[in-house]
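User: tokens in, sequence out, please.
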């Protein structure tokens, strides 16, 4: 029984020292980030809306987002290596065809996450 209590305390204390977003928190934060960046970049800005319309990106489909590793210098931020795979859909219009960007995007990147009152978000 003592060993079980000590093991539980050790696990609890270990969790206190490692403050980083979970796999699910990273997935949610990156989905919000990419959708805001790629689909709503021009919201509220006339020039941005014109550019968005010309590029013709109208959808994003996520295939995978995988947390590889994180480092956390404090309790409210973490830098994480993340592998992602998504496809951007493009409207069928003559101007949109001229711009690149649609199709499948796969990469491994480093993102900085901060803990807000709404949970972990990508810091831009």
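Assistant: Sequence out:
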């Amino acid at each position: 029984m003592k060993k079980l209590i000590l093991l539980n305390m050790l696990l609890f204390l270990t969790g206190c020292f490692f403050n980083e977003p979970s796999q699910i928190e990273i997935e949610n934060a990156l989905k919000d980030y990419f959708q805001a960046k790629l689909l709503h970049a021009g919201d509220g800005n006339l020039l941005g809306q014109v550019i968005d319309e010309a590029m013709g990106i109208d959808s994003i489909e996520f295939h995978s987002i995988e947390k590889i590793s994180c480092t956390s210098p404090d309790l409210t931020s973490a830098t994480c290596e993340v592998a992602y795979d998504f496809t951007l859909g493009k409207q069928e219009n003559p101007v949109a065809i001229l711009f690149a960007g649609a199709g499948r995007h796969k990469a491994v990147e480093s993102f900085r996450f901060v803990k807000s009152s709404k949970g972990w978000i990508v810091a831009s």
